[in-house]
Design brief:
Protein name: NitT/TauT family transport system substrate-binding protein
GO cellular component, one term: plasma membrane
Keywords: Cell inner membrane, Cell membrane, Membrane, Signal, Transport
Largest sheet: 6 strands, mixed
Pfam families: NMT1_2 (PF13379)
Strand order of the largest sheet: 2-1-3-10-4-11
Number of domains: 2
Strand content: 15-25%
Number of strands: 11
GO molecular function, one term: ATPase-coupled transmembrane transporter activity
Amino acid sequence: MKKYLGFIILGSMLLLAACGSNNSSSSDKEQTVTIGYFPNLNHAPAMVAKQKEMYEDHLGENVNVEYRTFPDGSTFMKALATDEIQGGIVGPGPAINNFISGVDVQIIGASSTGGTVIVSREGSGIKSWEDIEGKTFISPRVGCTHDVQFETFMKDKGITSERIGGSMKHVTGEPANYQSMFENESVDVATAPEPWASVLEKEANANVVVPTSEVAFGETLPAAVFVTSSDMAENNGDLIQKMMDAHKEAVSYIQDNPDEAVDITIEGIKDITGQELEKSVIENAWTRTNFTYKVDENVIKEFGNASYDLQFLKEKPDFEGFVNQSFIN
């Protein structure tokens, strides 16, 4: 009887040990991290990181990495606010607008600078900024990065949009559709992120009215920034650091391997938009874009104040806690 009881106790101990082992493995349960980005050239680091599996390498085997693309900053920011994505690349305009509105968003790095070009439709008669008064221009969204850059430039010249009492008419649309809108003459001017400005030059014979070097904040403003929520940054710092390390690796790869990065970007844009852009188009756009993960916080503040001056923001922005450079230093 004692021997039988001993077997029961030993069996119970083994069962408890097995249960403990199962509990230990459950702590290693796979989690999913979703990265968001746009099919624009200044989001090339995301396409390179995806193709080279850099996020997968940095985040490790227990993290399932997914990617989601967006047509504009508004839908991107909604996805971030609802935790559908944990981070990614977006224009500084939507990030600022949402931060000021109380959305939990934090800039933790840059993606690129430059890449915004103002072009006019062939046959529009627009050869310089003076000819734009009373014309119709298009940007991806009202108050987006490229819109603010263009309207700031024009406001400095004394010309504003109808929204604030001026003469310029404003419509919105996806950059990939700008060519068809030029061809049907529904718009006269486009404030275009690359590579779509170069597409319009080559395919629609568009005229460059304001080059990247002259448009407001053209060569200093981050054309795209890497963002996450402050909640993620504070409570999942190790995870965010690994995401930023992958992003930094992608930027460095682009700097060191521009020819291959061009090919990856062409394929990445094709996968999203269905349009296979010519290599010469991307190479032209590349000359107007500088890839970097470093953020100039002062330029971000200047850009935010410009958004306020254009009445995209109801209050002058307070940027306390908006830029967090701890993950790139």
